[in-house]
Known about the structure:
mainly alpha
Amino acid sequence: xxxxxxxxxxxxxxxxxxxxxxxxxxxxxxxxxxxxxxxxxxxxxxxxxxxxxxxxxxxxxxxxxxxxxxxxxxxxxxxxxxxxxxxxxxxxxxxxxxxxxxxxxxxxxxxxxxxxxxxxxxxxxxxxx
Length: 129
């Protein structure tokens, strides 16, 4: 597993979360309803939380020994990435395009995050460090 790659992508996600948040605050604020703006802000907030979580989890994965904990960390990282795209990504596109069907995808991102964090916890418990 290339933990540095996952950490770098997490850092990129964090920068994008700042950019998307600023776009929402400065460009979309006057153009969106309060409900849509609130949805967009939720997407940006959770985007940032999980970007930082990805960086931290990748660093921890790099410190873990190989074996079962390494595989758990690898799956955890994959699920955290998927959550960013499915949860935040679907909400960004939903708000910007009005495609309401995207709301059905958003919970899959939440489930990905819950599973990813669960696997990270299991990996930490197995790592012995």
